[in-house]
């Protein structure tokens, strides 16, 4: 059993996202950006859209960025849980380190298969927070591995912020705004940090069925209780302790979208972009299309971070539900 | 009413596909290529796969190449029918020329909407060959427009061949083989021409429910009667008069795949490549996975042309059927 050492923590800043990007650049995919004149034309403000296709990232989601950067800051040993298990297992495999994953026993089969395919050792737990914490503790005690949190951690946030840095390099013109979905808040907080000084206004997108972040922002205090009824399975997580204040300080607004709006946005993206986009990835586009955003009168180009493309294709698509 | 003039026809040769490519290069998308180590590892010969994503082409399919080149060879006026209507309407719109389209009255709504959205004038006909020919003649008589055939025409074939030229430029290593689906045979014949002198072995993929080309090759004579019962709606067309002898001469073999194999390949591509791929586009990958191909023992890299991504998302996906 190998003990791991961690590098000194970086500050939560734009400069740190740049360091993260330099660190993981050679390990990640530089995912392409997509535009669609039809989708742009359908918006009241006709914003030119630049979709950042993180569904084409390794592991099928932006999570690989945070996982890669987190791993790069460890010398050995790690442990994953939750949604980013696939990304972490893959990043660990590519670095040749052992990965242990704790997953709820009702996880979708493709997700379990992917994690297993990347060579990680899975321990299943009951699908609730208490069982997960207990199993996690047991696995850590047994293996001595280091826990790599899926969103509520400095390195994860910095890694996720690199998607926007890349998008800003790729977009042929300056963006007026950027949208990222918010579940745990790793992607949105990272995006907000990375946007510093760029003049890009940062917006979040959250499903109405799990809108703890938007509620917390209204109330000035992170909510710890969360309902989570939404098709956007990646966004059911409550926003993290580290993530919330960054969002509070740097994100202009978190737009709340209904599952119907998300499903409609998802279908439009599949039809027009020809990309398999998961509901969480479509939520950000749904927010761009929302009256709430369009009424702000922003007419410039808008970036949309497609968080991922991990859809369970053994289930009917959401617009059939 | 404007009379159109056509340039002198180019010979059916590799050199002509190169001319076609130079001509249309600035009008088309240079579509990206995709790899997947998981999909490659699943093959008995572990061929490295390079998918040419023509589903990301303008209009959502390779058809835009042939339509663009055909239009470039006209001075004005044109008329479309059939499957390539969307591509032609879009190419015509971009060139600012008037487009008339004849479509069967049972065409899928998204297809009709797309054609209309590109500003073409649609005349509907009964969904059979006789009605189509009669309507086509009537529209031509009324408008004086030039008919642009969807596959059985020199310029269409040359334009479609440019997808392989581009793939060969993009692939980081020489290909051992390339697969293209065959319906009317524009893409496969063009691919075969473009492959000349490259050392790439060319294979076709045809659904068992519409395998007139494979049958014709066995019998040494193009079949004119075709059944057409397959989920691969783009491949229901009988192979064309010009196309067949090119395929006969230059394609090593046309592999026949079942609809089940195509649906399975399609699902794998959606899951792993995160691309919306139409059944016709998946047929080529199904053929790569087939025992018939894998038993040839080719171990080198294989190109797979994803013909398009025009899927009717209002219908259940094929693996639910």
Automatic annotation (TrEMBL), chains A, B:
One of its GO terms (biological process) is D-serine biosynthetic process. CDD domains: Thr-dehyd. Residues 25-308 form the Tryptophan synthase beta chain-like PALP domain. Keywords: Lyase, Magnesium, Pyridoxal phosphate. InterPro entries: Ser/Thr_deHydtase_PyrdxlP-BS, TrpB-like_PALP, TrpB-like_PALP_sf. The keyword Lyase applies. Its cofactor is Mn(2+); pyridoxal 5'-phosphate; Mg(2+); Ca(2+). The keyword Magnesium applies. GO terms for molecular function: ATP binding; L-serine ammonia-lyase activity; magnesium ion binding; pyridoxal phosphate binding; serine racemase activity; threonine racemase activity. It comes from the Eukaryota. PANTHER family: SERINE / THREONINE RACEMASE FAMILY MEMBER (PTHR43050), SERINE RACEMASE (PTHR43050:SF1). Belongs to the serine/threonine dehydratase family. This is Tryptophan synthase beta subunit-like PLP-dependent enzyme. It comes from Daedalea quercina L-15889. The lineage of its organism: Eukaryota, Fungi, Dikarya, Basidiomycota, Agaricomycotina.
